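Re: [ENG-882] Designed sequences occasionally contain unexpected residues at chain ends

Forwarding the minimal case from QA. Structure tokens:
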């Protein structure tokens, strides 16, 4: 016969040596253990109901966080798509400015031979304006409107008998909005009101 000694563990102790393991509701493999001699069926049911309520609360919280994440993601994607062309539009505005300068300069010294050319360039200007409007890009109100630091950039102030103080007097460079975002501000000279006389 073998003299090998066998060691035995208490049935209430955990093989890992954790003395609190017997208080766990679920076994390590996730199954529900049979009630022990120290736990009545009522106590086990109460513990399981408590843990089920806790798990349901965690599930609802996870669902709410997932829904919030989904909404934020959709909002971010919509914003990116909404303003995806803002860089291109900003570059095109330089072309619009040059066309405007060309027509203004040509109109100042127009002749019968150049009237047709000026009219053609102005038609191109209008086409640009229509394309910008199609992409929700519109000019910022300028001369005669109240100065708005959110959309106007004041480069100077000047007295005026025609415009009250705080009103855009001259627009040196037209600004544009895309949806509710400033593509570029208007460069303006602001009226200080009638000149004071001594």
């Amino acid at each position: 016969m073998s003299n090998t000694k066998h060691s035995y563990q208490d049935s209430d102790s955990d093989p890992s040596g954790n003395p609190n393991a017997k208080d766990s509701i679920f076994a390590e493999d996730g199954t529900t253990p049979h009630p022990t001699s120290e736990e009545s069926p009522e106590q086990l049911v109460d513990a399981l109901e408590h843990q089920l309520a806790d798990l349901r609360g965690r599930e609802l919280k996870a669902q709410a966080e997932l829904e919030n994440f989904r909404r934020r993601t959709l909002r971010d994607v919509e914003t990116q798509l909404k303003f995806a062309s803002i860089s291109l539009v900003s570059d095109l505005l330089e072309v619009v400015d040059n066309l405007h300068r060309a027509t203004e300069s040509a109109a100042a010294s127009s002749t019968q031979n150049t009237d047709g050319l000026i009219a053609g360039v102005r038609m191109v200007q209008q086409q640009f304006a229509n394309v910008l409007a199609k992409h929700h890009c519109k000019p910022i109100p300028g001369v005669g409107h109240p100065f708005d630091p959110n959309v106007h950039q004041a480069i100077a102030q000047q007295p005026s008998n025609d415009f009250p103080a705080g009103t855009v007097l001259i627009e040196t460079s037209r600004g544009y909005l895309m949806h509710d975002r400033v593509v570029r501000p208007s460069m303006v000279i602001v009226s200080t009101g009638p000149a004071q006389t001594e």
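QA comment: On inspection the terminal residues look reasonable. The radius of gyration is 38 Å. Proposing we downgrade this to a documentation issue.
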